[in-house]
Write a structure and sequence with these properties.
The protein has 320 residues and is mainly beta. It has one helix and 20 strands. It binds calcium ion (3 copies).
Length: 320
Amino acid sequence: MIKQLYIFILLTISALGLSQPVPNVEENIPFLMTFGVGAGTSWGDDDFSQAFFFLIPEEYDEPFFIRVFDPDTGGKIDEIAGEFDTRSVYEIFGGEGVWTEEAAQETSPVGNYKSGTLLASRAFAQNPRYDNGWYTFGPFNPAQGEYVEMYKGRIFKIICEGVSGDDGNMYRYYLSTNADENRPIEGANAFAYEYSFRMHNDYEEVSHIYPYVEEGTISVKISNFDWDYDGNIVVISVARQGREVRVSGEDVWGEDELRVQEEEIGTSFDFRFVKARPLVRNNNVVVNVRNQYGDAMPFFTIPIGGVPKYRGEVEFVPID
Ligand SMILES: [Ca+2]
Ligand SMILES: [Ca+2]
Ligand SMILES: [Ca+2]
């Protein structure tokens, strides 16, 4: 019954989920951020590696592409340290174990996190050809992914790592049916167990991530790295109007724990990243969430169950 309900929810989203940029529009995150291994962690990236999963619905059987915006490190968009000398490698995996391998569902690049079959890879340094533009991986065949019954679809993984240099690589993804332009796959989604991203340089802009609360979740531990005291991180849910979470300073982790309420099961949290005034510029931050067993929880770019809205206090009207 629970599984059926879950699938129903996924299908409901499928009907709505027509856009597939990563990060997605609702997240309002300008860029993913991965630094070269030579950078100090005080720049805001704890491990120089970012893994993302793409979920292709089982009904979709055409070729698809994974497009990367600004894959290089150089030019206007990226974060320079001295001179641009960073190489980033993107690797795309499919096949058995790409997601089911335990290390793949962790938040650090440790053990067999590059599980599955390597389908494509490419390194980028400073490259004006791809600066402020797209590079396309593929075509891929959906059958190359790992089939996961619970998600009624096939999973692929892309890992971006800064293998040398000390600059920050900012980039985005798009899961597309087309090699030359961004055309979404209906019903597809993307998720990660840790987000390493760049905040806006505008305090009016609020970024979001949407961790999904599975059945059996009792409490969640929210960890954020190198927040630089840039305003507040606030949790909204169907049962929460806005609970502030302990935030981190420079080059350290901040942690906080929330008890999950019954109504929150089977919905997504809305973690809001609200910037400080005066403006904190070029802030990079890393976030992950774990349940009471210590398992990392997925953030879906298209929030499961939609963007959660606080349902408000229930009013009891006495009956005379
Ligand atoms: Ca450099
Ligand atoms: Ca870049
Ligand atoms: Ca930071």
